[in-house]
Amino acid sequence: MKLRQFWSIVISVLVVFAISCPADSYAVGKKLKCANAKIVKLETHNRTLKEQLSDSRDTCAMLAATIMQLRERSQQLVIQLQDQKSSNEQVLNHLKDLSVLSGTQAESINRFLETMGAKDAYIKDLQAAMARKDSMTMALVMNLKGAVGDLDDKDINIKIDKGVVYIDISDKMLFKSGKYEVTDRAKEVLGKVAKVLLAHPEIEFMVEGHTDNVAYRDGALLDNWDLSVKRSTSVIRILQNEYAIPPARMTAAGRGEYVPVATNTTDDGKASNRRTRIVILPQLDQFFKLLEKPATNMVK
């Protein structure tokens, strides 16, 4: 501000001088314009310097904050280093204790490590066996679905539940209402299933009969228990006599109305509960052989 006042006084003196000397007024005016331009240039430069000063102050503030963060981080690293040194000392002390183990203790540890290695190998064998079983089960399901693929899904359902293969066939396809004689159409379906089962002679299976909760009143049989068993044995006789499946591979079972898959309060639910189920039995003998394997291979 003082610089501006100074130049204003200078300009005023020049104006008075120009008035008192008309002959030189043109030259003075030119000098006045030149001086005024210099003032404007100096003011612009002054503003630039002020802005640079403000930016420098902001930069200094940021650097100060960064330095503070670095100091705090340095203190944290010092604390972590101290903790690590303490941990290392504990490990060294533990190693010193281990160095005084007796020969008997060392031998015991070696036996333990050998046993753990044998158990790991056994677990890997079990996992491999389970993987093979799952692959074979999936292949069986795909073969069954391929064999009966042209049937209505409501009449036959093939699924895996907890590693067990189930083939559910509705009684609407297999039997007439309240009867246990297998229909001709059902024999065709059973023939497709039998073809797949014959290709796997190692498989054993159980045929389960199921009913709804409507009481049986024909008189030839006592109740739904009898009806479910008769339907099961009818299916097994077809598989044995017409499709040559060895009877030793089959088990007949009747579950009556006591294992429903739907409510018995609706017609659709009752229809779902009236079914015959073929259950592919798990091969427990192979599983038990796997369990017996560690008895000879594991270190005691």
Describe the overall structure.
The chain is an alpha+beta fold and 300 residues long. The chain folds into 2 domains: 2-71; 130-288, OmpA-like domain (60s Ribosomal Protein L30, Chain: A, 2-Layer Sandwich), CATH 3.30.1330.60. It contains 9 helices and 5 strands; from the N terminus they run αααββααβαβαβαα. Strands 1-2-5-3-4 form a 5-stranded mixed beta sheet. Helix 6 (224-241) links the parallel strand 3 (205-210) and strand 4. Helix 1 (2-20) runs antiparallel to helix 2 (25-98) and helix 3 runs antiparallel to helix 5 (184-198). The chain is elongated.
The share of residues in extended strands comes to 5-15%
The overall strand count is 5
Domain count: the total is 2
What is the C-alpha radius of gyration, as a whole number of Å? 49 Å
**Helicity, in percent?**
55-70%
CATH topology of the largest domain: 60s Ribosomal Protein L30, Chain: A
**Helix/strand/pairing category:** alpha+beta
Quick overview of this protein structure:
With 300 residues, the protein is α+β, with helices and mostly antiparallel strands. The protein is 65% helix and 11% strand. The chain has 2 domains: 2-71; 130-288, OmpA-like domain (60s Ribosomal Protein L30, Chain: A, 2-Layer Sandwich).
